[in-house]
Design brief:
By secondary structure, this protein is α+β, with helices and mostly antiparallel strands. The chain is built from 20 helices and 28 strands. The strands form seven sheets. It has a seven-stranded mixed β-sheet, sandwiched between helices. The chain has a five-stranded mixed β-sheet with strand order 7-15-14-13-8. A four-stranded mixed β-sheet has the order 16-24-25-28, with helices on both faces. Helix 10 packs parallel to helix 18 and helix 14 packs across helix 15. The radius of gyration is 27 Å and the shape is globular.
Length: about 750
């Protein structure tokens, strides 16, 4: 099955939330309002690094229409937040470490008053040296940004004797790669509505990828029991990891409880740029060697990751990158050392691909360079070194057996782009200023949170009193199509009708702990949960029909219970006959490897990508005109959603590759809004995109479909870099690919263009 925008068939369904989205009727969390609500705003640091000598809020508090002005003194519980490590202050008390740091928050009758109140708050600063280079932060004489030092985390992996192995290598490639500070650029910036209820509870309508974790963190900050906090976390206008951490929630919650009135907060785009998370910029130095046939022998890697002012999930991202700089290749001698460093730059955090994007760009660049040294096709050198069915994972850990590497390699080898590449290896310009190139890359990408990190899953099926079958899960819908995928599973695999179902997610008062909607895990966990739930639920329905006099041996289907082709009882009739609802529940954990290394993965997806690019020799701009993606992620649960995730991931990767970098200077963003930050639009991304899923899994693989929310984003950058090399002969080691870099090529005014013109 080849998926593209023109694909059709019975399995292509209208998304349950699709009509409201395309008509603009869907109410996102930041669209909510409440009677008597106030507007909340946050005062952020004017300095990238400074001591706070004093904060004066009296003038702001005395403005008519201003109902609260809060600082660190007004936090009743823990003055810090962070999913894995509560490290970032809610309000800074004595020091600011980046310009997004919060110092105070106000609640006022309208936006103008709130902004005016912020302008009246006076903060006395003592400037401190600004540290923006992670390697400078590692120096012994560097100023310490935190009491524990400037290093958040170190990770390493060693196998064999790489230095000795390099001595026997016929060819050695050495290169340093640099990746940018990419923004999530979600449609809906951070925000929400915070409502103190009459019964003393607090209801939080705010975007997150894990409502139960938000509730836990807010409980610590507010010094309230978790059961007194309700988090409603869907629907969300995009996240991509950027709303995994708390953002406005502490401020909205504190202001609402202080004033006793609903408080609405919604970051402007400029504030989202200033305070929001970004992809970790990384410097990755690699030395990789092979024999004369191109078989990899030795591989050393040094990774320096800039986590910015606070930890967020910098540790976990670094662990993921450490694993994925080894990737899908069999290499006997390996030495990887990685470090994640604090600076006074904007805070880096979780982002689609989770460190894999940076790692795979560098690793695939090395493989291309070695292929050129050996004198063989870059795709062939990959085949000679790929992991095989039954091989361990990158860290030597036991993994679910997968033949994905071979599957995607062979699929790409046969695609039309690779045929064109083989038949026309010397790319000729087709007009006086445009040249084309075709490149390819491959990757394996871990799913789930990895060994040693709590990764719960579970769900509930319930026949409600009105006859609807409720599927209740603790996930969030932030545009990835989770609701549609769940509905499709229940309809296609278990025979229910869409009209029979009510899918309930994203409300901590009613959902079980299904774990986070992140790490490409939700589709797998839904599938595994339903495999556990539906047989038990069906048996309970059958037994209930028998007790109600409907006879034995029936089974659930569209609209009710069936036997011998006849409907015995509708779900409404069955519900009315019950004294209490029928409920089935399950709780389990995401599968993990048996090797005791924190973060090591067990389930992997494979992806291979071929792209064709055009390089404009006058401007140096690169445009992607054709793409082919082979994805080994098991059975396709939702073809439309599958294609959408690969297309969306590739579009985001195109920005990472060609245009996006939130530039900073001395800890201050030069990028302040979307007028100076270019993301791909439909005009940049209107070429052909084909997606071929590899749906077969090994017989012993019982884990079902894998999520594809990330894997579509990890291969495009190295494939484009390879295509650019074929087009203009320039090896790229830094993203985004700046036009100036390609304009400097001799090819741009050289013989190939002249001969074509002549």
């Amino acid at each position: 099955m080849l998926l593209n925008r023109e694909s059709s068939g019975a399995r292509w369904r209208t998304r349950p939330d699709g009509l409201e989205k395309v008509t603009g009727k869907l109410q996102y969390l930041t669209d909510r309002s409440a009677e008597g609500m106030l507007i909340g705003r946050v005062l952020r640091s004017a300095k990238a690094h400074a001591r706070i000598l004093g904060i004066r809020t009296e003038a702001a508090a005395n403005v008519p229409g201003v109902y609260a002005v809060l600082t660190h003194e007004d936090v009743p519980g823990l003055n810090a937040f962070g999913i894995a490590f509560p490290h970032q202050p809610v309000f800074c008390a004595d020091r600011v470490r980046y310009t997004g740091d919060a110092i105070a928050a106000v609640a006022a009758e309208n936006e103008e008053l709130a902004e005016y109140a912020l302008s009246l708050i006076e903060v006395d600063y003592e400037p401190l040296p600004v540290v923006t280079d992670p390697e400078e932060a590692l120096r012994e004489d560097a100023i310490l940004l935190h009491p524990e030092g400037n290093v958040l985390h170190r990770a390493e992996y060693r196998e064999g004797e790489p230095e000795a192995a390099f001595a026997s290598c016929a060819y050695v490639a050495e290169e340093t790669y640099f990746t940018p500070r990419q923004m999530h650029t979600y449609m809906e910036t951070e925000g929400g509505l915070f409502v103190p209820e009459a019964d003393g509870k607090l209801t939080v309508y705010s975007a997150t990828q894990h409502g139960l974790k938000d509730r836990m963190q807010l409980s610590r900050i507010l010094a309230l029991p978790e059961e007194r906090i309700r988090v409603v976390s869907s629907p969300i206008g995009g996240s991509f990891g950027g709303k995994d951490e708390l953002n406005v929630q502490p401020y909205g919650a504190l202001l609402a409880l202080r004033t006793g009135r609903p408080v609405r907060m919604h970051n402007s785009r400029a504030e989202s740029v200033r305070a929001g998370l970004k992809r970790h910029p990384m410097k990755i130095t690699m030395r990789t060697g092979c024999d004369r046939e191109g078989r990899l022998l030795a591989h050393t890697v040094r990774v320096v990751s800039d986590t910015g002012a606070y930890a967020t999930l910098g540790t976990e991202v670094l662990n993921f990158a450490t694993e994925h700089v080894i990737g899908p290749y069999q290499i006997k001698h390996i030495d990887v050392k990685s470090v994640c460093v604090y600076t006074n730059n904007g805070v880096s955090g979780e982002f689609r691909g989770f460190g894999g994007n940076q790692a795979i760009f560098a690793l695939e660049g090395q493989i291309d360079r070695l292929a050129a040294m050996v004198g063989i096709d870059p795709w062939e050198i990959r085949r000679r070194n790929l992991r095989k069915l039954g091989d361990p994972g990158p860290l030597g850990q036991p993994i679910a057996p997968t033949d994905g590497a071979r599957q995607v390699w062979e699929a790409l080898e046969a695609c039309s782009l690779m045929v064109e590449r083989r038949e026309s290896p010397a790319r000729e310009p087709y007009d006086p200023w445009t040249v084309t190139g075709i490149g390819a890359a491959i990757a394996m990408h871990g799913a789930g949170l990895g060994f040693g990190i709590p990764d719960p899953a579970g769900g509930r099926l319930r026949l409600a009193p009105d006859g609807r079958i409720e599927a209740v899960f603790g996930y969030e819908e932030f545009g990835q199509g989770l609701i549609a995928t769940m509905e499709q599973m229940l309809v296609e695999q278990y025979g229910f009708a869409a009209e029979d179902l009510r899918i309930i997610i994203g409300d901590t008062d009613v959902v079980p702990n299904s774990g986070s909607s992140t790490a490409s895990r939700a589709t797998s966990m839904m599938w595994m949960a339903l495999r556990r739930l539906v047989p038990d639920f069906a048996a309970k329905l059958t037994a209930a029909v028998e007790r109600a006099g409907g006879g034995a041996g029936c089974h659930p289907g569209k609209g009710g219970m069936w036997k011998d082709g006849n409907r015995v009882m509708t779900y409404v009739e069955l519900a009315q006959a019950l004294s209490e609802p029928i409920v089935s529940e399950t709780a389990f954990s995401y599968p993990t490897t048996t090797m005791e290394r924190v973060g090591a993965h067990f389930l992997y997806t494979y992806a291979a990508v071929a792209v064709k690019v055009e390089v404009n020799t006058l401007t140096g701009r690169v445009r992607i005109v054709d793409q082919y993606h082979a994805i080994a992620a098991g059975p396709v649960a939702n073809p439309q959603g599958y294609l959408g995730q690969i297309e969306g991931g590739a579009a985001m990767a195109a920005g990472f590759t060609l245009t996006e970098d939130a530039r900073m200077d001395e800890g201050l963003y030069l990028t302040k809004n979307l007028d100076t930050y270019l993301i791909p639009t439909v005009l940049d991304f209107n070429g052909r995109i084909q997606v071929e899923p590899m749906e077969d899994l090994p017989e012993q693989d019982t884990y079902g479909p894998r999520g594809v929310g990330e894997v579509g984003s990890v291969c495009l950058a190295p494939a484009v870099a390879s295509a650019v090399f074929q087009a203009v002969g320039k090896r790229v080691n830094r993203l985004p690919i700046e036009p100036e870099l390609l304009q400097e090529m001799p090819f741009m005014s050289g013989k190939a263009v002249d001969s074509h013109v002549g």
